[in-house]
Amino acid sequence: MQPPLAQGLYHPSHEHDACGVGFVVNLNGEKSHDIIRKGIDVLINLTHRGACGCDPETGDGAGVLIEIPHEFFANECAKLGFSLPDPGRYAVGMMFLPVEQKQRLLCEGIFERIAREEGLKVLGWRDTPLSGDAIGRQARATQPYIEQVFVRPAEDEAGRAMTQDQFERKLYVVRRRAEAEIAESDFHEKGF
Predict the structure, then answer these.
(1) Burial category of 20 from C-beta neighbours within 10 Å (exposed 0-12, middle 13-18, buried 19 and up)
(2) How far is 149 from 111, CA to CA, in rounded Å?
(3) CA–CA separation, 177 and 59 (whole Å)
(4) What angle do CA 64, 73, 97 make, to 5 degrees?
């Protein structure tokens, strides 16, 4: 079978054997659950990589990256008592936190303070639903507490909002500062 002709970003000269990557997209930008199903099929087809730990029920963490499902999150956040701005005007962070509540709240507080210092506003937190039975015993033993945090840019005194580029840079700075401060904190040094 011959590779397809050159088109768009694709060129047949770049064809070579590779393992471990799959890409599914709708070129017209149409949202569809079919794309998610196909992405999951790609993951299933990549199991031959042998990318699993000694626990056969625990994979290597491969997953599917999707656009923020705004309507879904808007409904879920409304149930939690906060609302989201328009799509593209907020971010969702996946937070892997300590299981023990005191340490988890400390981490959340550090994150919220740094976000505020960097001109961002934390809208709220959401416990991420998960199925503990879907992972192996070894992974379950070290599983963190997983939350989603919703953040938007705060307006300045004149009511001006950040540009998208400024917002994305601030998100990066907040993440790096929070990681560093938590790593250097007393509870981290004590093994929590």
Answers:
(1) exposed
(2) 10
(3) 30
(4) 65
Amino acid at the residue 127: D
What are the backbone angles phi and psi of residue 155, rounded to the nearest 5°? -80, 150
Closest CA relative to residue 80, chosen from 174, 153, 152, 149: 149
Q: What is the DSSP letter of 3?
A: P
Beta strand segments in the chain, E: 91-97, 120-127, 145-153
30-37 long-range contacts (CB < 8 A, ≥24 apart) are 31/67, 36/64, 36/66
Instruction: Indicate if 19 belongs to the active site.
Output: yes
Query: In the beta sheet, which residues pair with residue 148?
Result: 94, 126
Say if residues 15 and 44 touch (Cβ distance below 8 Å): no
Distance CA 185, CA 61 (A): 27
The residues, any chain, with a CB within 8 Å of residue 59's CB and separated by 6 or more, are: 51, 52
**Residue type, position 146, single letter:** I
What count of Cα atoms within 13 Å lies in the side-chain half-sphere of residue 34? 6
Give the amino acid at 129: P
Predicted model pTM: 0.76
What are the tens digits of pLDDT across the range 20-66? 677 888 888 888 889 889 988 887 777 665 555 556 666 656 667 78
Backbone φ, ψ for residue 112 (5° rounding): -65, -40
On average, the pLDDT of the chain sits at 84
Alpha-carbon span 58 to 143, nearest angstrom = 11
- Choice among 19, 52, 54, 107 that is catalytic: 19
